Amino acid sequence: MVAGTGQGPAQTITDDDTLKQGGVNNRPWGIDAPELAQTCSDGWPAGRLAATRLQARTVRRSIVRQLRDRNRYGRVVAICRVGGEDLGAILVREGLAWAFVRYSSDYVGQEAAAKAARRGVHAHGCQPPWGWRVPLREGAKYR
Fold first, then answer.
1. Phi, psi dihedral angles at 58 (to 5 degrees)
2. Is 137 helix (H, G, I), strand (E, B) or coil?
3. Half-sphere exposure of 63 toward its Cβ, with a 13 Å CA cutoff?
4. Distance between CA 14 and CA 6 in Å, rounded?
5. Does residue 142 belong to any structural domain of this protein?
6. How many helices (H) and strands (E) does the chain have?
7. 6 class by beta-carbon count within 10 Å (0-12 exposed, 13-18 middle, 19+ buried)
8. Residue 111 included in any domain
């Protein structure tokens, strides 16, 4: 576990679930959002919409980070809050990310509510990103 906190504006959203702050790539804790190029089986642009929503929630706003870990790519994994609201919880609640239960059960309730209400990815037959990435790791091109 990485200790500490950080605060400052997001400089850029580098993809659907990574934001750069002070030169550091941050990944919100406990979620996995669709990959930027990922679309759902019905063509719904899940990755692009998740990134757009994250950008809208963070533009010109201070982000408070509670560091939790570092992933294998060196990104800081943190609970990220804007205006006191947890960005991971927002994305999962709105159906723009999944609770990443491999690492945390923090957002299981938000995901269950999003599924029940058929919000976002749950209304479009989207494959979770951990499954969507498998062919990429095996050398296939983005679909």
1. -115, -15
2. helix
3. 31
4. 19
5. no
6. 5, 9
7. middle
8. yes
What distances in angstroms separate CA 108 from CA 17, 87, 96, 112, one per listed residue? Answer: 17, 15, 14, 6
Residue 117 token pair: 């209400």
- Looking at residue 73, its pLDDT comes to 82
Q: Which CATH number is 46's domain given?
A: 2.40.50.90
According to DSSP, the β-strands at 76-82 and 24-28 are parallel
CA distance 5 to 90: 20
Q: Report pLDDT for 25.
A: 83
4: which residues sit within 8 A by CB, 6+ positions away? Answer: 67
Q: How many CB atoms lie within 10 A of CB 92?
A: 31
What domain range is 43 assigned to?
Answer: 5-137
Counting every residue written for the chain, the total comes to 143
pLDDT < 70: residue spans in the chain: 1-12, 14-16, 136-143
Beta carbons within 8 Å of 67's beta carbon, 6+ residues apart:
2, 3, 4, 5, 6, 76, 77, 78
Q: What distance in Å separates the CA atoms of residue 118 and residue 62, rounded to the nearest whole number?
A: 31
